Amino acid sequence: MSARELVVLGTASQVPTRHRNHNGYLLRWDGQGILFDPGEGTQRQMLRAGVAAHDLNRICVTHFHGDHSLGLAGVIQRINLDQVPHPVVAHYPASGQRYFERLRYATAYREAVRLTEAPVAADGPLAVTDAYTLEAALLSHPVESYGYRLVEPDGRRILPERLAAHGIEGPDVGRLQREGVLRGVTLEEVSEVRRGQRVAFIMDTRLCDGVHTLADGADLLVIESTFLDEDVRLATDHGHLTAGQAAAVARDAGVRHLVLTHFSQRYTDPAEFERQARAAGFTGELTIAQDLMTVPVPKR
Predict the structure, then answer these.
(1) Looking at CB atoms within 10 Å, which of 20, 233, 277, 289 has the fewest?
(2) In this predicted model, what pLDDT tens digit does every residue of 137-194 receive, in sequence order?
(3) What is the 3-state secondary structure (H, E, C) of the chain?
């Protein structure tokens, strides 16, 4: 199976620091690449992380604040410069169409790749493929913002003891999986449902229904935690989450691996985000994101 992993390209919020680039996140999914929120400097961070333009199949922008979208111009031009051989689809809030067009055509270049614009105007599925369904949900921020979730179709897990009880072995196992029934034994009788993996991506937002919808049952949740809990009023005023709020969402949603990111430059100790996330009761796997790190999607 191809890699399923998150490549973190940048983790800063509005102002980058010496150690944190503006946002950028690539989800590798069985040979597909989905780039989320390419902020300024994303093209260079891709080079440092070993991510090529050819790796990109979709671009998902949550909203049109600069730290989440100013890298679009360079990424789109690089896709064309490298003559990526497959189409690329771009999702972004429909209300920001004018911003997308400005970034897409910020300077002169030769268009060589088919870039399909697929703006988001409502909650629900955006794309359905054999490998996943991509969904969106409205968030709560001063400008229109959407979060995204990738959901793998459910599969089935073969149970060897049940196969043995029915005397099914060798090539007959594959035949049963392909055809669904063998000598009167159905696939359902010798297997159980294996729920598909889920990855959620939630950037700038206050607590709202969309946050909980996207996080529900996520194997990997990438979520902003711009502020620490003592600055919760600032977080609410500016449309953001605190570390404790993000962790409480993950706790209640049954998230397996929580990735906190999008940190304000006012904080210098990343360990405090981890401490507050644990204090909120989240007991799963926890990562405080750093630029250029790779986070695997938990296996089932």
Answers:
(1) 233
(2) 999 999 999 999 999 999 999 999 999 999 999 999 999 999 999 999 999 999 999 9
(3) CCCEEEEEEECECCCCCCCCCCCEEEEEECCEEEEECCCCCHHHHHHHHCCCHHHCCEEECCCCCHHHHCCHHHHHHHHHHCCCCCCEEEECEHHHHHHHHHHHCCCCCCCCCCEEECCECCCEEEEECCCCEEEEEECCCCCCCEEEEEECCCEEEECHHHHHHCCCCCHHHHHHHHHCEECCEEHHHHEEEECCCEEEEECCCCCCHHHHHHHCCCCEEEEECCECHHHHHHHHHHCCCEHHHHHHHHHHHCCCEEEEECECCCCCCCHHHHHHHHHCCCCCEEEECCCCCEEECCCC
- Which residue of the set 67, 204, 229, 291 is catalytic? 67
pTM of the model: 0.94
